[in-house]
Amino acid sequence: MPESPTLWSHLSVWLVLGGAFACALPLGHLLAAARYCTLGAVSDWWTLRDTHRLRMWAAAAGTAMLGTEALRLWAGLDPARTLVPYASPHFAWIRYVAGGFVFGIGMHLAGGCASRQLLRLGGGSLKAGLALLVAAFTAAWLIDAGAYRSWLAPLMNLGAIDLDGLGLADQRLTSFARLAWPGETTATLVAGTLGGGLLFAAHGRADSRLTTVEWRAGLALGIAVVAGWWLSGGSPGRAWQEDMAFLDAMPRGVGAQSYTFVAPLADLVACVRGRAPSFGLCGAAGLVAGSLLWHWRHGRLRVERHRNVRDLLRTVLGGALLAVGGVTALGCTVGQGVTGLSTLALGSMLATLATIAGAACAIRVEYALGSAA
User: Fold this and answer.
1) What is the reported pLDDT for 1?
2) CA-CA distance, 151 to 264, in Å (whole number)?
3) Distances 288 to 55, 182, 213, 274 between C-alpha atoms, Å
4) How many CB atoms sit inside 10 A of residue 250's CB?
């Protein structure tokens, strides 16, 4: 790459970035097979009271919580020090609520969240491709052109709470729990209780168990998030970060992280301009490739086009809102709803709940307007 011709001479780069792609490849295959879709999960629950896809999401989050705590104990991962500042002591709660709500509306208009768009793209959807393209340029404008910092950040920081001043090191639930129960085992107890509780909830009643495919998809997503943390923040990631620190120019997106699918769309624009691919971008590419493999193997590759101009404009607006919401909330339904939750960050929980609320409101409004018409 022009910015750093020696980048690819480091084995750590191939291990971490290649690992991001390699882990996402089977994940894309499994998620496509299970019809994993956060919008579908909210819609099924809101309109049909069917919780199967919602419980797949719970299985992923629970697995990620337990696995991330295991990495903290045995691999030296610090969930409070990550590239995306999930656990930041600067608790800008408006950011999580507003960003999540906007993202929820965007995923309804676009027909799925960022990860779902990648899976649809693998199945041949031109609509998903347009939504991702719009989201990519919008995210690049917000992040790289400084639009978020100049226009949105002042509003999103209103009412922010400085947790440092309250004697808290970060916004992880474990920090709050330690105020009442000091001790080294507190974090493990909190992670074990929440993670185990989510897995128990995913199990469901005897008459509504998850299918084998659904269990595999949910567990695979959680395991992939844990693998991402290990690749970028465990021993391979530490070697990668050290190697990158000695380059003339630090590549984009170096640090402890796991899967998220909005900010990496901005990385795609930067990559086209000559920058090196990031961990997140390699993960997104792996998800598309895995979905493509599943659709091809099962003869389900179909070109999906827009039905009319209104459908096209809906996709464009949805893609833009996915980027605005995802950048503001610091992640998507995977970036905050699984990866962020695995750090036990309070902001991730707010963003996830706000995303569900935004999608549910959008579904309800459209249903009401359709009924009135």
Assistant:
1) 42
2) 21
3) 23, 44, 19, 22
4) 13
Question: Using alpha carbons only, what angle is made at residue 41 by residues 35 and 47, rounded to the nearest 5 degrees?
Answer: 125
Count CB-CB contacts under 10 A for residue 66: 20
* Tokens (6 digits) for 208: 């509504």
Query: CA-CA distance, 361 to 368, in Å (whole number)?
Result: 10
Distance CA 284, CA 186 (A): 35
CB 89 within 8 A of CB 175: no
Q: In this structure, are residues 169 and 80 in contact, taking their beta carbons and an 8 Å threshold?
A: yes
Q: What are phi and psi of 86, to 5 degrees?
A: -55, -40
Amino acid at 251: P
From the list 364, 342, 362, 341, the residue with the least C-alpha distance to 352 is: 341
Q: Domain boundaries in the chain?
A: 7-372
Task: Answer for the pair 28, 290: CB distance below 8 angstroms, yes or no.
Answer: yes
**106 touches 318 (CB < 8 A):** yes
Exposed, middle or buried, 293 (CB in 10 Å: 0-12/13-18/19+)? middle
Q: Is the pTM value of this prediction over 0.90?
A: yes
Q: CA angle at residue 277 from 272 to 283, to 5 degrees?
A: 120
Q: Within 83-211, where are the H helices?
A: 93-110, 114-122, 126-143, 147, 153-156, 173-180, 186-203
Taking alpha carbons only, the member of 166, 165, 222, 214 closest to residue 194 is 222
230-265 confidence digits (pLDDT tens): 999 999 999 999 999 999 888 999 999 999 999 999
Q: Residue 164: what residue type?
A: D
